[in-house]
Structure formats: structure tokens, C-alpha cells
Amino acid sequence: MAKTVFITGATSGFGKATALLFAQNGHDIIITGRRKERLESLAKEIKTKYSTSVLPLCFDVRNNDAVVSAIHSLPNKHVDILVNNAGLASGLNKIQNGSLDDWEKMIDTNIKGLLHVSKAIMPLMIDNQKGHIINIGSTAGKEVYQNGNVYCATKHAVDAISKSMRIDLLEHGIKVSQICPGAAETEFSEVRLHGDVEKAKKVYTGYEPMSAGDIASIIYYISSLPENLCINDLVVTSLAQANSLYINRK
Ligand code: NDP
Ligand code: 8X3
User: Fold this and answer.
1) Domains of the chain: residue spans and CATH
2) What is the pLDDT of residues 188-233, one digit of tens each?
3) The pTM is what?
4) 3-state DSSP assignment of residue 54
5) N or C: which end of the chain has fewer CB within 10 A?
């Protein structure tokens, strides 16, 4: 049966690949992000290729009023699966050299943004006594590494929020899963390195990183399990990566 899937950060990387995969499998998609042209072009692509409904909603997850008004605008007030994916790293410096602006961006997006969207969607799931929240954490939420400091802290917060959500939503039959990927080649490093494309490419040289499609297929798999099963927490890396600290580069 077709489900309604709400995906944050669908203009790129994991979110875009996830939207395409769910649409390909006949699910109704709500795609969100700040870049309107990209949302519109993805919506067009989905409509052309698949016979499913797609609704683009353009907002910044950091702006709670914008989040609330976008979610209030949903025609059916119904979401089966929320993929809390929007997020970023900004800067890669020792903490003593960190920029306040980078820190605020990461904290406001990765922690507060995820909370804003969840707060607006949880009541819809509670009304339905059913739903699935899939939070995108990171290996950076399991271990810290040099220069990772505040990004790692935000993903540790996602880890804690995911565990808390699972406990607090238990009585409502709502599943909460966290996926913690290691390195995957998307626009992530370009954003982290403030647009330095050449340096960003080097993050993925000498080994085969994961792709956005790999993570999308895991999100899809987790959401397709029988009703009685919930993958609570899943850490995934490419074969060349052991954890945040060890990558086998040739
Ligand atoms: P991308 O940079 O390719 O995609 C990030 C997405 O997040 C974009 O669609 C972007 O949309 C959206 N986004 C960022 N800030 C905001 C905001 N303030 N409001 C709304 N949307 C926002 O990176 P990935 O696909 O790799 O990252 C997706 C998630 O996965 C992030 O949470 C990231 O931390 C996490 N992750 C990534 C890993 C990797 O190695 N790539 C590994 C582990 C976790 P727009 O700019 O249009 O708003
Ligand atoms: C993204 C993966 O290794 O850059 O969360 O922290 S890493």
C-alpha cells in the first residue's frame, strides 16, 4: 500500500536518492529543502517518471514558523514515514579555531531543525497511533574525531534524541530508527569545506566511499520491514572504513 513519506533535505545527496527510490516504489512523497529550483526540478522528474504524488515544500528547517506553516499546509495532514535527513557540517577546524557562525549553523540545523520538523509531525502520527521516524545520524554521533568537534556533538545529540523519541513515543506505536552512515560521497564535504570542490574530492580518494543510493536503499529497507519489527540503530560504512577514525586508503 502506498505510504506518505516526508523527506527533509531532498534537494541533494541522501534525501534526493531516497525521494526517487520511494517514488519508484509507488509511494507518495513530500520533498523539502531550501533550494526551490532543485525541489521543483526533482518534483518534475518524479512526476515524469513515476505515477505517484509529489509535493515540494520549500523551507529552512531552522525557522520554526516556516516549518509549522509548511506542515499545516499538508492537504491530508497525514505522514507515514518522516525521514529527518536535512543537515550539514560547516567547517573542519580545531575547536579553538572554530567559527561561531559554523557552530550555529550546525546546531540550528542538525539539532533544532530536526526537533522543529519532528514536533510538527509527531502529533499527526500520534493521532494515527502509527508512523515511522527515521533520523539520519552519523558515525560522527558514535565517536568524535580531530576537527569534528561541534559536528560530532550535533550528531551525538541526534543519537540521544533518537533514543528518547523511541521511549517517549513507545505508547503510540510509532517506530523510531536511526541510521548512522560513515563517509558517503554527496555534496556533504563541499558544504563542510565551504565550497572548496577540489579539497572535497580528496575526502573520497583512495577508497570507494558509499553513495547516496546506498543510504537510500537502507532507508527503504528499514521502512519495509514487517509492522512488528523496528531497526532501532544502524551503523553503516563502506568496506574500506572501520569507524570515524580508520579508512583504508590505497
Ligand atoms: P548533502 O549536502 O548532499 O545534502 C544535505 C541536504 O540537507 C540538502 O538537501 C540541503 O538542502 C538540506 N539542508 C541543509 N541545511 C538545511 C536547512 N537549514 N533547511 C533545510 N534543508 C537543509 O549531504 P548528505 O546527503 O550527505 O547529508 C544528508 C544528511 O546525512 C545530513 O544530516 C548529514 O549530516 C548526514 N550524513 C552524511 C554523511 C556523508 O558522508 N555524506 C555521513 C553521515 C551522515 P538545501 O541546501 O536545499 O536546503
Ligand atoms: C559524515 C561522516 O565521517 O564526515 O557524518 O563525520 S563524517
Assistant:
1) 4-236 (3.40.50.720)
2) 999 999 999 999 999 999 999 999 999 999 999 999 999 999 999 9
3) 0.99
4) strand
5) N
